[in-house]
Amino acid sequence: MTPWLMAGLLFTPLAWAVLTLFPAFRLGRVLTRLGILAQFLVAAGLWMTVAQDGGFYYPLGGWKAPLGIELRVDGLAVTFVVLTAVVAGACGWHAGDYLSPETGRHRYFWPLFWFLWAGLNGVWLGADLFNLYVGLELISLCSVGLVALAGNVGALRAAIRYLLAALLGSLAYLLGVALIYGQFGSLSLAGIQALVASAESFPGAGVGLFIMILGLALKTALFPLHGWLPPAHGIAKSPVSALLSALVVKASFYIAARLWLALGEELGSFVLAQAVGVAGALAVILGSWLAFCQSRLKQVVAYSSVAQIGYLFLLFPLTFGVPDSVVQLAQQGIALQVISHALAKAAMFLAAGNLILSVGSNRVEALAGVSRFLPFSLFSFALAGVSLMGLPPSGGFTAKWLLLQASLASGQWWWLAVLLLGGLLSAAYVFRIYRASFVESRGQDQFYHPPRVLEAIPMMLALMSLCLGFVSEPVLAVMSLPFEEGG
């Protein structure tokens, strides 16, 4: 069963990318919805396999490393595979009704969407540094193409800026890989971890790790390297923005987290860990404030992404030089934060897209009076905001509670202020949107009513983000499952 699941997970997106390359938009939509159902079934099957038998390494074609390519199928990886199936599937379904079939360039959304999905699965399951790079590059190139699909001058400018930032981040990552390989003669992350544990000194390897994390921080848009993100996320079509914020920036962070947890204790330093944490704290505070100050709805949500990304990088100081129990708390908190943010931010971008489609404008003040016409989209936006604020019973609350405990247990009490202030600032920009929508507009209201399915999808994602707090224990149990040999 496992070979079929792995083949379905990796090669189905590539096959569907080819299938949807030539047909018109409507046929591509039908094919994509069939593919989404297939991917969800495959992801659910792999989740159940790992939950029952534990994690494992899977050699492609039966060739084990270092001659072949091995995939790391552990609890964390399969959790992200399922998350991708849910979020990408929802965004793809939403795009089928949101994008106009009459716009010729929109038919290219489908192959780019499927190539992006293939790259994401490749990153979640990658076990060596070079194949992680391949998956990351596929994701970046597809994301740039999706941003450019908006077709106007602003979108092209944002796509080029995104491309330059992505290429610079990739070059830094690749330079770090070269330094690591020159030191250890291996690209396998598990092999490098074993060599680091047995070596007495590793000159140059620490520099390689620093450069790799710097490049990945640029691709994740960590403050102050975030300048490319708001234009790209703000001007792209809403389903594209949802994909970028919920999944794409998580891929580079996922690699950075894997590197730090495997090599950070030996190759990192206290100064580096705290510096990354400070950058994350500044991202939370300044990103939230900039989100509050924006006059355009999607820019509010885009700068909110900058802020929420900052929480993720608290992983670095909370897992360096601390007991294993604290490391586990921090890992669980960050993992839940990633999942909660992916669901909530996808819901928020899709709901914002519905509101913009209804009022015909991206400006916040144009929302006046829309509360009486699109209550479900506004409610979805609010539920997603509950998770971003970290209020119970959302997944965001559980994640921040675990991070709070890790901060106290490690003696790093100063991160508590970041968690509390970030929640308050999140509430400020969410309530600002609500206030604008409940203001009665002057003159006669003329709003477009989008199809009901466009309102149902963000509601589903927002409810999942809200209810994540109730099911966090079984999710964390699967993520911490040990490896078993075989496949």
Automatic annotation (TrEMBL):
InterPro entries linked: CPA3_Na-H_Antiporter_D (IPR050586), NADH_UbQ_OxRdtase (IPR003918), ND/Mrp_TM (IPR001750)
Membrane listed as a keyword: yes
Boundaries of every NADH:quinone oxidoreductase/Mrp antiporter transmembrane domain copy: 128-424
Parts of the chain that traverse the membrane: 6-25, 37-57, 77-96, 108-127, 133-155, 162-184, 204-228, 240-261, 267-293, 300-322, 342-361, 373-392, 412-431, 452-471
Intracellular or extracellular location(s): Cell membrane; Membrane
Record's keyword annotation contains Membrane: yes
Keywords of the record: Cell membrane, Membrane, Transmembrane, Transmembrane helix
Membrane topology: Multi-pass membrane protein
Predominant cellular place of this UniProt entry's protein: membrane
Pfam families: Proton_antipo_M
PANTHER family: NA(+)_H(+) ANTIPORTER SUBUNIT D1 (PTHR42703:SF1), NADH DEHYDROGENASE (PTHR42703)
Family that this chain belongs to: Belongs to the CPA3 antiporters (TC 2.A.63) subunit D family.
Protein name: Oxidoreductase
Source organism per UniProt: Marinobacter daepoensis
Record lineage: Bacteria, Pseudomonadati, Pseudomonadota, Gammaproteobacteria, Pseudomonadales
